[in-house]
Write a structure and sequence with these properties.
It catalyses: alpha-D-glucosamine 6-phosphate + H2O = beta-D-fructose 6-phosphate + NH4(+). 37% of the residues lie in helices and 16% in strands. It is α/β, with parallel strands linked by helices. The protein binds 2-amino-2-deoxy-6-O-phosphono-alpha-D-glucopyranose (GLP). The site of 2-amino-2-deoxy-6-O-phosphono-alpha-D-glucopyranose has 14 residues, from helix 5.
Length: 263
């Protein structure tokens, strides 16, 4: 488990974008696991800039998104399909047929979840999974008490999550209380995981995820078992970690080692 603490949200976005860009350069046909929410927006902007300046092509990349609101179709401005089109897909050269977001407007959600898992499997799984984190420690829409080995399925959202996401909906607008989400077991199978968090709001969740016990109360704590996970967080989100000095020390040591081996 690697904990990278950076100065601010911009540095977090740069770090994440560089990771994704270097994966695409070494493996143009890679499969990315993508997230929504406000946290990855700056990272997506960086990727768009790299595409526009011809440093990066997404033409052979496939993507799988973590989650979608149940009951919203992809044309609904608050749907996660719409979010992905607006914030990334419409601005790069990705083939949209290779972009998979769980289908929210289905009358057969269990079947949709099963097919999502099957498609992910047929594509060989996720190379790099990008994650945000909810204030209560959720990843995707796996709320506290989710099974730590769960697969893609329908989940009920907590009041805290509904309130946190209210800002995206208009006052009288229907806000779904259910969502389809990749399971925690599904997420854990990604070959590499990058979790981004910024701001004081996320400090408790980060402390529980990184230093708390492995527990369904904090779904992100499952990442402690992952062999290739990096938490990329800003100083504000890091403020409740007990071992900040040690995490920073490790990063400095790693940097020195890199410089020495590069000589
Ligand atoms: N389902 C999404 C999560 O994938 C995301 O990580 C979380 C945090 O969002 P934000 O980045 O806006 O804080 O919000 C939603 O609940």
């Amino acid at each position: 488990m690697r904990v990278v603490i950076l100065e601010n949200a911009k540095a977090v976005a740069n770090f994440g974008a560089d990771k994704i860009a270097s994966l695409i350069k070494t493996k143009p046909q890679c499969t990315l696991g993508l997230a929504t929410g406000s946290t990855p927006i700056k990272l997506y902007q960086q990727l768009i800039e790299q595409y526009k300046s011809q440093q990066l092509s997404f033409s052979d990349v496939s993507t799988f998104n973590l989650d979608e609101y149940l009951g919203l179709d992809g044309l609904h401005p608050q749907s996660y399909r719409y979010f992905m089109n607006e914030n990334l897909f419409d601005h790069i050269d990705i083939d949209k047929r290779n972009t998979y977001v769980p289908i929210g407007n289905t009358s057969h959600p269990d079947q949709a979840c099963f097919e999502f898992e099957q498609t992910l499997k047929s594509k060989g799984g996720v190379d790099l999974q990008l994650l945000g984190i909810g204030r209560n420690g959720h990843i995707g829409f796996n709320e506290p008490s989710s099974s730590l080995t769960s697969r893609t399925r329908v989940k009920t959202l907590t009041e805290d999550t509904i309130n946190a996401n209210k800002r995206f909906f208009k006052k009288e607008e229907f806000q779904p209380h259910l969502a389809i989400t990749m399971g925690i077991g599904t997420i854990s199978e990604a070959r590499e995981v990058l979790l981004l968090a910024t701001g004081y709001d996320k400090a408790d969740a980060i402390q529980n995820a990184v230093e708390g016990p492995l527990a369904a109360r904090c779904p992100a704590s499952i990442l402690q078992l992952h062999p290739n996970v990096t938490f990329v967080i800003d100083e504000k989100a890091a403020q409740k970690l007990q071992d900040i000095a040690f995490y920073k020390h490790i990063e400095r040591e790693n940097m020195r080692l890199k410089e020495r081996t590069a000589r």
